[in-house]
Sequence to fold (261 residues):
Amino acid sequence: MVLFLVDYHTHPFSHGEECIKKQYSKEYIERFIQKAIKTGIKEIGFADHDEFIDYIDWDILKELKEKYKIVKLGIEFDFKNDKKHLNMIKKAVDFLPLDYSIGSVHYIDDWAFDHPKYIEKYKNRIIDDIYIEYFKLLKNAVELDIFQIVGHFDLIKIFGFKPDNISIMDLAKPVLQTIKENGMVIEVNTNGLNKPVNELYPEINIIKMANQFNIPITLGSDAHTPDRVGEGIKMAVRIIRDIGYKEIAIFNNKNIILKKI
Ligand SMILES: [Zn+2]
Ligand SMILES: [Zn+2]
Fold:
């Protein structure tokens, strides 16, 4: 049986490292597509961070989308409680040629909690409090109702710090409820398997709860280099099928389409 595999979360521009900036070109982005084709990925989505919005070459992306039908265009928006930034996001979702956008939380206040450089902060704070704050921000992001996909739902676990006295499921539930109300989708992001936590984002129990809520799922590797495109995607599809998912969400001009898996 042929599985319908998609990778909707890739970053050709990465984090704007000097070496990437130099090689960011049509040929370089094409290497992501070639890897997708080789891996049997039916749709590859480019979703660079909004932080680099001025560097993303939409002309090249549109050209590649014409050339390769498997290409989808997206962006990963960083949710912050910052009015100016929110206005930028609202304008960008209307203005850009997007098939979808991913809304993600990478910051608590100005703390980039997923960056190994700032890991010490987990040791100076109560983990329960950090989780409460993270899920509150995630809920705020979902309530905006301007994204199609919620990125790496439980990213806060990245370094393996887990809460002591509160249940992650209790924190996840109201967010999933709001996702369902707003007709949004969550991604299963395989990159958590490369991090100290060594789990998918989100963890299996959250995927199960999402299934109970009837929330559709899409898939992403969070590849920052061509070689990682499609990594873990086949396994992720098998896992969500085992949980009970029979379809996967893909997007066309911000409209959701459910594909049999
Ligand atoms: Zn992210
Ligand atoms: Zn990402």
